[in-house]
Amino acid sequence: MTTMGDDAMDDKEHLRPARMRIKTTVLMSHGDESHPTDLIDISATGVLLRRPREWNGKAGESWVLDMIFGSDLHIHLEAKVARVSERHIGFAYTRIPEDKQVPLWNLLGGYADILEMWHDE
């Protein structure tokens, strides 16, 4: 039996793939528009980027993301805008080239298999 309080809590708590905080520059491109920005965190299903001031995109748009990690790892993939806030853009991967899948999972290490709790705010 659940109480009303339990239902309210269930509505706000969710599991998501664990986020790995890592700093790097990302070039985000859509048609002839492109913006360099900063990666905030990355997971097995998406990334959170700092929202560029000039960016006027919206949820649902497809973008190409180019991420460079160190001197030997370049990940180029397609992602859809999942959420937008004043300071951040959340992307969900839509296409990871086959030759970039293993390097991405290796980068994530243990984060690729972990789920974490998060709360709607």
Notable features of this structure?
2 helices; Thrombin, subunit H; 17% helix; PilZ domain-containing protein; PilZ_domain; alpha+beta
How would you portray this structure in words?
This protein is α+β, with helices and mostly antiparallel strands. The protein has a single domain, classed as Beta Barrel (Thrombin, subunit H). About 15% of the residues lie in helices and about 50% in strands. It contains 2 helices and 9 strands. The chain has helices spanning about 5-10, 100-110, and strands at about 15, 20, 25-30, 35-40, 45-50, 60-70, 75-85, 90-95, 115-120. The strands form 2 sheets. It has a 6-stranded antiparallel barrel with strand order 3-4-5-8-7-6. A two-stranded antiparallel ribbon has the order 1-9. The radius of gyration is 16 Å and the shape is globular. The two termini are about 25 Å apart. About 15% of the residues are buried. Residues about 1-10 have low confidence and may be disordered.
Layout of strands and helices, then pairs:
Elements: H1 4-12, E1 13-17, E2 20-21, E3 25-30, E4 33-42, E5 46-50, E6 62-69, E7 73-84, E8 88-95, H2 98-108, E9 115-119
Antiparallel strand pairs: 1-9, 2-4, 3-4, 3-6, 4-5, 5-8, 6-7, 7-8
